[in-house]
Amino acid sequence: MFSPQFAAGPARAHAFAAAYHQVGVQTAVSGADPHRLVALLFDGCLEALAQARGAMRAGQVEAKGRAIGRAARIVEEGLRAALDLREGGSLAADLDALYGYLTLRLMHANRHNDEAALAECERLIEPLREAWQAIAPSATTR
After folding, report:
1. Closest-CA residue to 65 (of 26, 107, 93)
2. How far from 11 is each of 2, 18, 60, CA to CA, in Å?
3. Residue 43: which of 117, 133, 118, 114 has the closest Cα?
4. Could you tell me which residues come within 8 angstroms of residue 22 by beta carbon, excluding any fewer than 6 positions away?
């Protein structure tokens, strides 16, 4: 017998897809080494920025705020918190300042619906992501 609770309308299909995505993220994180975790943070930040941009264009204020908030949390609680300012020298200090700037630009983008600020954040994160990926082989052989 058919049960209406299993009827998959668009909203329900989206919920199922989101649940599978979350399981995939949790699986990737649970088996990741420290280098891979940082790579996942960069990827997650760029994904959140893209979602924020799409929501901004569509006029979806709540979705925009959630996506920008997610990007800001990744920057502050993930990337910035992972820095070792005592041992990292000037590179860590420079990254700390950059992450602080990114957080300010994200707040600005959210408050002023400034898509250019989101694009600037993407342009600043992307080279870091690429550089991080480039050192992956040497980071995993230690």
Report:
1. 107
2. 19, 11, 16
3. 133
4. none
Report the amino acid identity of residue 76. E
Domains, the chain: 33-134 (1.20.120.340)
pLDDT tens digits, one per residue of 98-125? 999 999 999 999 999 999 999 999 999 9
Which has the closest alpha carbon to 118: 62, 73, 72, 58?
A: 72
Show the DSSP H helices in 31-60 as ranges. 34-58
pLDDT of residue 118: 98
Using one digit for the tens of pLDDT, what is the confidence trace for 53-78? 999 999 999 999 999 999 999 999 99
Q: What is the pTM of this model?
A: 0.76
SS3 call for 2: coil
Half-sphere exposure of 24 (CA within 13 A, CB side): 8
Q: Classify burial at 140, counting beta carbons within 10 Å of its beta carbon; exposed 0-12, middle 13-18, buried 19 or more.
A: exposed
